Amino acid sequence: MADRFSQAVKTAFAAFEKKGKDNSTGSSATLRLTFGSQADGAAPVVVDATNAGTHVTPVQATPEPALALAAAAAATSAPDTKYLAISLDPDAPFPSFPFLGPILHGVQADLTIDNTTGDAAWRPLTSSTPPTLHYIKPGPPSPSAAHRYIFLLYKQPEGLDDAAIRAKMGWAAKGPALTRSGRMRFVVGDLETKLGLGAVVGINYFESSQ
User: Fold this and answer.
1) Does residue 38 form part of some domain?
2) Which among 102, 126, 145, 177 would be 20 to 30 A from 110, CA to CA?
3) Residue 74 located in a structural domain
4) How many domains does the chain contain in total?
């Protein structure tokens, strides 16, 4: 994984991949991604612990995914805990030569656990706050092998909100926080340091290609 990833993210993803390849333990995915409202009327596409790393087409991944945290992970947090989610493509433009990666695909703050819905395994995460950085769907170039699209969840420090995130990161105070070029070669460690984020508490990914 590129040097622009923090050691915390590298460690979390390495452990995730290792456990996911062990059939005796299954995947260690702690985030569920649900891509709803499919254009062709098909059922929502779900990426969870049973199929982490599965292939999702760019069309299927067009809607911003709804997130859910594994119930076991949610149980360790206080009821008023807020979370921050980011999504990244580390493989741009090509997995063999990812000099533009990671591309920051989205930032959503003020996520909270909804204990009124969900099931025994997953607790939905919801937010009434507009995304700090709106989600963009996968767009790997057609000659490329599949890209990974990684979703990471952190506990959101107290007092950190959309305005504070923009100010600390030096992003635009209103409107689009970053230009498309500003999303490229994103240094995840800088975001973690500037926002005072701790360990990754939720992770999952899917692959996509044209």
Assistant:
1) yes
2) 102
3) yes
4) 1
Q: Compute the distance between CA of residue 43 and CA of residue 41 in angstroms, rounded to an integer.
A: 7
Range of the domain at 19: 7-208
pLDDT in tens, the chain (210 residues): 556 788 878 888 777 776 666 544 456 789 999 999 787 788 999 999 889 899 999 999 999 999 999 998 898 888 899 999 999 999 999 999 999 999 999 999 999 999 887 788 999 999 999 999 999 999 999 999 999 999 999 999 999 999 999 999 999 988 888 999 999 999 999 999 999 999 899 999 999 999
- Say if 1 falls within a structural domain: no
Listing DSSP states for the chain in one string gives --TTS-HHHHHHHHHHHHHHT-TTT-----EEEEE-S-TTSPPPEEE-TTSTT-B--TTTT-SPPEEEEEHHHHTTS-TT--EEEEEEETT-SBTTB-TTPPEEEEEEEEEEE-TTSS-SSEEEEE-SSPPSB--------TTSPPEEEEEEEEEPPTT--HHHHHHHHT--SSS-SS-HHHHTT--HHHHHHHHT--SEEEEEEEEE--
Task: Record the pTM.
Answer: 0.92
**CATH code (residue 189):** 3.90.280.10
* Whole-number Å distance between alpha carbons of 208 and 210: 7
* Domain assignment of residue 2, yes or no: no
